[in-house]
Amino acid sequence: MTISEAAAVLGAEVLQDAFEDAPLSGAYTSDLLSDVMANAKDGGALITIQAHKNTVAVATLVNITAIIICNNRPVPEDMIASARDEGIAVIRTRENQYTVSGKLWELMHQ
User: Fold this and answer.
1) Chain segment 23-74, per-residue pLDDT in tens
2) Do 48 and 30 touch, CB atoms closer than 8 A?
3) Residues near 104 by beta carbon (within 8 Å), at least 6 away in sequence
4) Is the pTM here over 0.85, yes or no?
5) Domains in the chain, please, with CATH?
6) Helices (H) and strands (E) in the chain, counts
7) Per-residue pLDDT averaged across 84-102, rounded?
8) With 90 as the cut, is the pLDDT of residue 110 above it?
9) Are strands 89-92 and 66-69 parallel, antiparallel or unpaired?
């Protein structure tokens, strides 16, 4: 499943669309950025409510290709600009992290 396909299935809004629409290798759900650095896998999506540019910096360190912001959190422009510079997709959904995690897990394991 590509990043765009995941966004469509989730009914999510793509806030930063200057990215390579690569297949997702998985996903990791966390709001603790040090946890993301220690445990997220290369080429996956990060499911979080952390909507700030430090999230992009962490995603860059572990080669996250998409950040999915849950609960319809506002996303500041500096986060979007930073993600654009790094080629990381930023997607926003109204759903919570539990729901998004479950949907992506099911879709990736069909």
Assistant:
1) 999 999 999 999 999 999 999 999 999 999 999 999 999 999 999 999 999 9
2) yes
3) 6, 10, 24, 27, 45, 47
4) yes
5) 3-108 (3.40.1390.20)
6) 5, 5
7) 98
8) no
9) parallel
For the sheet containing 27-29, what is the strand order? 13-16, 89-92, 66-69, 45-48, 27-29
Q: Are 24 and 105 in contact (CB under 8 A)?
A: no
Residues facing 68 on adjacent strands: 47, 91
Is the CB of residue 64 less than 8 Å from the CB of residue 88? yes
> pLDDT, tens digit, for every residue of 8-22?
999 999 999 999 999
Cα Rg of the chain, angstroms: 12
Amino acid at 26: G
pLDDT at 21: 97
Looking up tokens 């409510």, which residue turns up? Answer: 49
The length of the chain, given as a count of residues: 110
Task: Please name the residue that has the structure tokens 């700030």.
Answer: 52
